[in-house]
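Retro notes
What went well: the complex prediction finally ran end to end.
Inputs used:
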Amino acid sequence: MPELPEVETVRRRLAPVLEGRTFVEVEIADARLTRPLDPVEVARELEGERVALVDRRGKYLIVRFESGRALLVHLRMTGSLLHGERGQLPDDPHRHAVVRLDDGSDVAYRDVRRFGTWLLLEPADVDTYVNARVGREPLAAAYRARHLAEQLESRRAPIKAAILDQRTVAGVGNIYADEALWRAQIHPLTPASTLGPDEVKALHRAIRQALQAGIRRQGSTLRDYRLPDGGTGSAQHEFKVYGRGGEPCDRCGTPIDKIRVAGRGTWYCPSCQLYSASRPSRSRRQSSV
DNA sequence: AGGTGGACCCGAACGC
DNA sequence: TGCGTTCGGGTCCACC
């Protein structure tokens, strides 16, 4: 599942490949990718564009062109981008688009479940579109615990649901949400607004650490995620809780438990991540229930 | 109006 | 063994 660490890894690998290159020919074979726009028309619009920068916001990969336009690629669950010499990429029934570059190489898009999207935006629309959907970048130097606190103070939803909301903080998905909550020792069902200042600080640090650990291992390959050269990430070997139901907690040895939160499979340590009743009581914000 | 759950997909895992 | 069923996850959208 490409989350921030996976998309950032793809970005870093793709940047040297794409920057300065021109899209010579573009083929988009799946209408879902550009819906509701016609994929053939989008492909035609892309031809001739020259890449200025490969950027990222949250889970969006942003290919910025010299024209000021930008192609927003969202991999959703099973999307991946592969780079290779023209015609050298093996046949693939799940390949839905190919970009031919002016240096003779190809970038191919594959997506088993076809949830991914390609959106070409005009210069004036790029920031507006992204900022409406995505909150602050958690790995930016300027990202502080108080930014997270501001987002959480009015949220009654479970903390896990709150941090899965991309406007709360950019790029956290189901895996790194569980990993961050384990690091911060916070129960995933804790109402977001009841977290105390120390817990918010711990969570702020935990989100950054969990994401950075993912990037260091070039993301996690559970099934479909690949680097642009076809390689796999290895962050899954270092998960503390995600997918580890029944296994002993690294910190205390208690078997990891699995529950459902916000409709998502959620793994946590029932000893290290105690629910509110066992957390030290603290003054709550006033809220008329 | 914030929160929740279904829809969209498809392969893998599961169950009988 | 084989086949039908369930699961899962990011985002959008309808509904409460």
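What we learned: Residues 197-216 of chain A form the longest helix (20 residues).
What to try next: split runs per interface for comparison.
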